[in-house]
Write a structure and sequence with these properties.
single chain, mainly alpha, Jann2411-like fold, two-stranded antiparallel ribbon, 6 helices, 6 strands, binds zinc ion
Length: 199
């Protein structure tokens, strides 16, 4: 029977979706690509099919992911870019030999130089990270408002006011937590004397 692994959290920005293969970084972290096979699965879902992945390639993927996370976080906070992270991102971009292919259906596909080149897939992800961190695309890097998450996400909302990396998980959880806190406050306040300093 296959082992159970946590689901992927897929967004529409490749680089930040990749960074989100590790979630709850400030809480009980959840590793969503713990094995080479899970990296293969994630890449396939994102149109970067490889047929083989070694442990060393998985480790390289983790290093790229953490570098994207670090550089995207620094950008969201308007801090200086961490040099080591920039190095890893650039190295992955340089190593990648994927080609963009235009299909007759008006879509872009990536063709890797060989089906076992995880490095090509990582190069595509690194290039995507470069384009958002360099501010080339319409949107803004921001950090998730959830205190246990703080993931960097790419906000493309018109008002640039998105608060959570993912509405279905972090957003919902925050809403529920706030609802509970309000309920507690309301029940706790009952029977207490009114606040003395009415401003
Ligand atoms: Zn989040």
């Amino acid at each position: 029977m296959p082992a159970e692994f946590p689901d992927f959290r897929l967004g529409n920005v490749l680089a930040t979706s990749f960074a989100a293969t590790l979630t709850e970084r400030r809480g009980d972290a959840v590793e969503r690509i713990p094995t080479p096979q899970r990296l293969i699965d994630w890449l396939a879902v994102n149109g970067l099919t490889v047929d083989y992945c070694t442990t060393a390639q998985l480790e390289l993927a983790w290093a790229l992911r953490e570098s994207i996370h670090a550089a995207a976080t620094a950008t969201a906070l308007q801090d200086a870019l961490p040099e080591s992270a920039v190095h890893v991102i650039n190295d992955c971009s340089i190593e990648g030999r994927a080609s963009a292919i235009l299909t007759l259906e008006h879509t872009r596909r990536w063709r890797l130089s060989s089906a076992s080149r995880v490095e090509d897939a990582l190069g595509v992800i690194a290039a995507d990270a470069i384009s958002i961190i360099a501010g080339e695309r319409d949107g803004r890097l921001a950090l998730c408002a959830s205190p246990t998450c703080r993931a960097a996400f790419f906000d493309t909302s018109q008002s640039r006011s998105r608060k959570w990396c993912d509405m279905n998980t972090c957003g919902n959880r925050q809403k529920k937590a706030r609802f509970k806190a309000n309920q507690r406050k309301n029940t706790g306040a009952r029977g207490n004397s009114p606040p003395s300093n009415s401003a």
